[in-house]
């Protein structure tokens, strides 16, 4: 009977055998997506930059007269520029505040208490994409004309006059809130899907936080990126909206640009370029505000230490 010879244990300090390097065809195939990605990004950059460059050349070059920056230097002194820009920024701020005040509590409530209603809420929020702005402004104009005729002897008559104040038309804020609702909903819904809101709310409630503290110190900090995205989309929509404001007879920034284009074409193009740059700058500011570190929020000071750790 042959004697059994014990096998030697594997040497724990034996050097590891290096893996074989990928072959050249594999390296070439791995490098192809990067080449195509750069090519597509380059085409996209040309698609956006070439029209901007052509517009800039149109504003500074006059055939037979050379280069002049008069179209840019005369913007601040142009009649109506400051008033229209401040009006659009004020309308944008009011619209952002109103649409977030309506959308955030509603979506959080649906997420926590009635998740089965989410498809219905989504359909309602997406309806402004189906209704053309021309139809919306026709309905708004009909109501504004009907109100003073039938409510002249009621307190609502002053309300109809107040919402149409030319210095700050509240009716535009209401209309822009409806138009911005689909974009705000998509941004907030994506943020709520990425965060375990029920667990965060339950933990905050167990720590003694009331509902305003839960929303302000727990939910909103975790939706910072989504809130910044919703605010930027609303800002871009308000600054570029023309149809509703023009048909209702108001003159925010977009309507002023079209109005001045008839007499000063180069200045209108120059203002359009500057408005695009301003929008990009605001996008960068909102992106930096939204890219802050996520936190589950602070809990009230009265909460015990064991609850804070949980």
Quick summary of this structure?
The chain is built from 14 helices and two strands. The protein is an all-alpha fold and about 300 residues long.
What can you see in these coordinates?
A hairpin with a 3-residue loop joins strand 1 and strand 2. The chain is built from 14 helices and two strands. Helix 8 packs antiparallel against helix 9 and helix 10 packs antiparallel against helix 13. It has a two-stranded antiparallel ribbon with strand order 1-2. The chain has 310 residues and is mostly helical. The termini are far apart.
- Tell me the β content: under 5%
- The strands making up the biggest β-sheet line up spatially as 1-2
Poorly predicted runs of 5 or more residues = 1-5, 293-310
Radius of gyration, in Å, reads 29 Å
- Helical proportion? over 70%
Terminal CA distance reads 66 Å
Question: What is the strand tally?
Answer: 2
Structural class: mainly alpha
Element order: H for helix, E for strand: HEEHHHHHHHHHHHHH
Total DSSP helices: 14
In terms of topology, how is this protein built?
Elements: H1 24-60, E1 61-62, E2 66-67, H2 70-73, H3 81-113, H4 118-130, H5 133-150, H6 156-162, H7 170-194, H8 197-206, H9 211-222, H10 224-240, H11 243-248, H12 253-261, H13 265-290, H14 305-309
Antiparallel strand pairs: 1-2
Helix pairs in contact: 1-13, 3-7, 3-10, 3-12, 4-7, 7-10, 8-9, 10-13, 12-13
């Amino acid at each position: 009977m042959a004697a059994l010879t014990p096998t030697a244990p594997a040497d724990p300090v034996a050097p590891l055998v290096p893996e074989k390097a990928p072959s050249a065809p594999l390296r070439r195939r791995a490098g192809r997506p990067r080449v195509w990605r750069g090519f597509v990004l380059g085409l996209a950059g040309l698609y956006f930059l070439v029209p901007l460059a052509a517009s800039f050349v149109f504003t500074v070059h006059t055939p037979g007269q050379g280069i002049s920056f008069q179209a840019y230097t005369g913007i601040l002194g142009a009649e109506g520029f400051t008033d229209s820009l401040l009006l659009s920024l004020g309308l944008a701020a009011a619209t952002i505040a109103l649409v977030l005040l309506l959308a955030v509590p509603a979506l959080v409530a649906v997420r926590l208490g009635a998740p089965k209603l989410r498809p219905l809420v989504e359909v309602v929020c997406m309806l402004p994409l189906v209704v053309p702005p021309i139809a919306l402004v026709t309905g708004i104009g009909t109501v504004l004309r009907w109100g003073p005729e039938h409510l002249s002897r009621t307190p609502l008559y002053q309300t109809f006059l107040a919402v149409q104040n030319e210095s700050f038309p509240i009716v535009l804020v209401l209309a822009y809130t409806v138009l911005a609702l689909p974009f705000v909903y998509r941004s907030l819904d994506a943020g709520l899907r990425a965060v375990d809101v029920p667990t965060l709310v339950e933990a905050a409630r167990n720590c003694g936080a009331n509902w305003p503290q839960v929303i302000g110190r727990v939910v909103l900090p975790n939706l910072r990126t989504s809130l910044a995205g919703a605010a930027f989309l609303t800002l871009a929509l308000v600054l570029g909206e023309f149809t509703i404001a023009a048909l209702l007879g108001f003159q925010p920034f977009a309507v002023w640009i079209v109005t001045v284009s008839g007499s000063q074409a180069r200045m209108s193009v120059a203002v359009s370029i500057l408005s695009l740059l301003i929008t990009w700058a605001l996008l960068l500011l909102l992106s930096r505000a939204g890219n802050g570190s996520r936190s589950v929020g602070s809990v009230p000071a009265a909460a015990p230490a064991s609850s804070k750790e949980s």
